[in-house]
């Protein structure tokens, strides 16, 4: 294949922050692993003013009506630093995506059933945050869009690929992938530690990030986002870093 298979759900070590953070469990019955998303614990409530300002803006746009929870955006994790898995380098940064023909590639190597199901739920044109994971400072670096909906992941049948699955059959493939295309870089890097500050504040005051899967199901490398979660996180790119 023309570029290395990306790491998605397997064998990551913990992000190098907040050693006392609790580890969320996902798919305990599968061998899949993902890093524990960790960051230095910020003071709870540090984002309340930002949340209130964002809430006022959204309420003025929507008439203050509560929308029911639906997932229409995504967060995709990938490792920007080299790491060998079964002899293959699983590094794939947003710069690697930008270097692909038409800035487009397949999102392969997902070997977690819940993450796979999220892949299968993706719709053409939906946008996702590109999240750098398992690195010195994890966080959101850009935006991509889905340009091809789920289809069989060919790496499951490739015995030379680190994500080969001998139990999968071509007539009934276990694993899927989608194609994604680079849209743009975020206006600034949005670190995990900053997002977590808002999450902790929103848990207390009912903000949009109170149930964000980045903290409730942090091992998953494919995560859905509500419109409210996506909009709030995107609004952070306009703020000066704390």
From TrEMBL:
Entry GO CC: nucleus
Main localization (coarse): nucleus
Key word Lyase present: no
Keyword Ligase set for record: no
Cellular compartment(s): Nucleus
Domain EVE: 73-235
Top-rank taxon: Eukaryota
Pfam families assigned: EVE
Alphabetic keyword roster: Nucleus, Phosphoprotein
Database matches in CDD domains: EVE (cd21133)
SUPFAM superfamilies given in the database record: PUA domain-like
InterPro entries with a match to the protein in the record: 5hmC_binding (IPR052181), EVE_domain (IPR002740), PUA-like_sf (IPR015947), THYN1-like_EVE (IPR047197)
Biased composition annotated in UniProt, kind: Basic and acidic residues: 10-28, 56-65
Biased composition (Low complexity): 41-52
Chain residue ranges for the region called Disordered: 1-65
Function: Specifically binds 5-hydroxymethylcytosine (5hmC), suggesting that it acts as a specific reader of 5hmC.
Protein name: Thymocyte nuclear protein 1
Organism of origin: Podilymbus podiceps (Pied-billed grebe)
Gene that this sequence comes from: Thyn1
């Amino acid at each position: 294949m023309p570029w290395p298979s990306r790491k998605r759900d397997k064998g990551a070590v913990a992000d190098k922050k907040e050693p006392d953070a609790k580890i969320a469990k996902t798919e305990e019955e599968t061998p899949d692993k993902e890093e524990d998303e960790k960051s230095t614990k910020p003071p709870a409530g540090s984002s309340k003013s930002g949340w209130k300002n964002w809430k006022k803006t959204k309420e003025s746009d929507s008439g203050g009506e509560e929308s029911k929870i639906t997932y229409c955006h995504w967060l995709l994790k990938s490792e920007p630093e080299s790491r060998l898995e079964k002899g293959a380098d699983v590094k794939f940064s947003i710069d690697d995506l930008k270097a692909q023909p038409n800035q487009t590639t397949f999102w392969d190597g997902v070997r977690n059933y819940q993450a796979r199901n999220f892949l299968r739920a993706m719709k053409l044109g939906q946008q996702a945050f590109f999240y750098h994971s398992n690195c010195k400072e994890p966080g959101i670096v850009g935006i991509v869009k889905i340009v091809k909906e789920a289809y069989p992941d060919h790496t499951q049948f490739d015995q030379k690929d680190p994500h080969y699955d001998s139990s999968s059959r071509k007539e009934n493939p276990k694993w899927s992938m989608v194609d994604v295309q680079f849209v743009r870089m975020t206006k600034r890097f949005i670190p995990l530690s900053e997002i977590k500050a808002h999450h902790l504040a929103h848990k207390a005051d009912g903000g949009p990030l109170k149930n964000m899967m980045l903290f409730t199901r942090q091992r998953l490398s494919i995560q859905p986002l509500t419109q409210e979660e996506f909009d709030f996180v995107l609004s952070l790119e306009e703020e000066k870093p704390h």
